[in-house]
Design goal:
By secondary structure, the protein is of the alpha+beta class. 44% of the residues lie in helices and 34% in strands. The protein has two helices and three strands. A three-stranded mixed beta sheet has the order 2-1-3.
Length: 94
């Protein structure tokens, strides 16, 4: 049993290190793109407003289409979502 626990701990440590290295690499690539002016993009997103009504009902209103700034990276960076994520989730609810 101790053998399996040791292997599991080593696997978890290796996964954590790999995730950290991937995030640092993503950050470094984004910094290089910032210096070239290609780090950020915009995606047109549909915004909706959910308003609660009486009787546990909801009203959904279309607010319009707005451009959203996103980072061209794997992870969200510098307060912006990743472009690949925003492009797949074009509906924003408020």
């Amino acid at each position: 049993m101790e053998l399996w626990i040791g292997r599991l701990v080593r696997l978890l440590v290796a996964l954590a290190v790999a995730a950290g290295v991937l995030w640092v690499g993503d950050w470094a690539v984004l910094r290089a793109r910032v210096s070239h002016g290609t780090a950020f993009g915009t995606v047109q997103v549909n915004q909706f407003l959910a308003t609660p009504l009486k009787g546990s009902k909801m009203e959904y209103d279309y607010m319009g289409t707005v451009p959203v700034t996103c980072s061209r990276s794997i992870f969200p960076q510098q307060g912006n979502s990743a472009c690949w994520w925003v492009e797949r989730h074009k509906a924003q609810w408020e």
